[in-house]
Amino acid sequence: MITLRNIERYYEHGATKTWVLRRVSLEIEEGEFISIMGPSGAGKSTLLHILGMHDNAWLGEYYFFDQAVHKLKPKDRATLRNQQIGFVFQSYHLLDHMTVYENLEVPLSYRDFKKTERQAIVGDMLDRFGMVGKKDLYPTQLSGGQQQLVGVARAMVANPKLILADEPTGNLHSAQGKEIMELFKKLNDAGTTIIQVTHSEANAAYSNRIIKLADGWVVEE
């Protein structure tokens, strides 16, 4: 599904280069559940943003199925990202001025869905996540756990091949965190590939492979 070859990323500060990733090469199969771990500053989130095609300023080769991502124009990368990848963030990143229903509809606006199709898909997702009664509420009216459930539902609504999660339970208490991880496990069992960045050994235990980074290098798989 994903092949990375010698991915490198640095930031420039005047004449100085600070390397964040060094020669990262990985093979990720469709249907895997992978955890990326390592100390703060190891390059975990940077790697996730490259995988998610949010970051364009890297070196190396990135293949997503049969697409050579490193050769695509930014606009084409954005199209591929919107069609194939869902994101779950630690801080939810919901749009506070939109209702739960409207937040779920946003990813579908990047696709060619008619209004009736969008309504059916969002309705099904609300039912699946037990949120029909909350569809007209705004994010600020929800608990942290409920907001993250909306975040996961939004990541799933367009039926992506890949979900990327950056510390998805970092702002939740343990019971809420476990609920989110159990949900990820179900999605993975149903065939969705999941890659998460986590500091939590308990969260990493849900995955079938752990990739450890240190100072930008892959040090263990």
What would you say this structure looks like, in words?
- The protein has 221 residues and is of the alpha/beta class.
- It has one domain: P-loop containing nucleotide triphosphate hydrolases (Rossmann fold).
- The chain has helices at residues 44-51, 74-84, 100-105, 115-128, 144-156, 174-189, 201-204, and strands spanning 2-13, 16-28, 33-37, 59-64, 67-68, 85-89, 162-166, 193-197, 209-214, 217-220.
- It has a 6-stranded mixed beta sheet, with helices on both faces.
- It is globular.
- The mean pLDDT is 93.
Q: List the uncertain runs.
A: none
Instruction: Characterize the main sheet.
Output: 6 strands, mixed
- Proportion of strand residues: 25-35%
**CATH-defined topology:** Rossmann fold
Sum this structure up briefly.
The protein is an alpha/beta fold and 221 residues long. Helices cover 33% and strands 29% of the residues. The strands form two sheets. It has a six-stranded mixed beta sheet with strand order 6-7-8-3-9-10, sandwiched between helices. Strands 2-1-4-5 form a four-stranded antiparallel beta sheet, covered by helices on one side.
List keywords for this structure.
221 residues; alpha/beta; Rossmann fold; 6-stranded mixed beta sheet; 4-stranded antiparallel beta sheet; 29% strand; globular
Topology:
Layout: E1 2-13, E2 16-28, E3 33-37, H1 44-51, E4 59-64, E5 67-68, H2 74-84, E6 85-89, H3 100-105, H4 115-128, H5 144-156, E7 162-166, H6 174-189, E8 193-197, H7 201-204, E9 209-214, E10 217-220
Parallel strand pairs: 3-8, 3-9, 6-7, 7-8
Antiparallel strand pairs: 1-2, 1-4, 4-5, 9-10
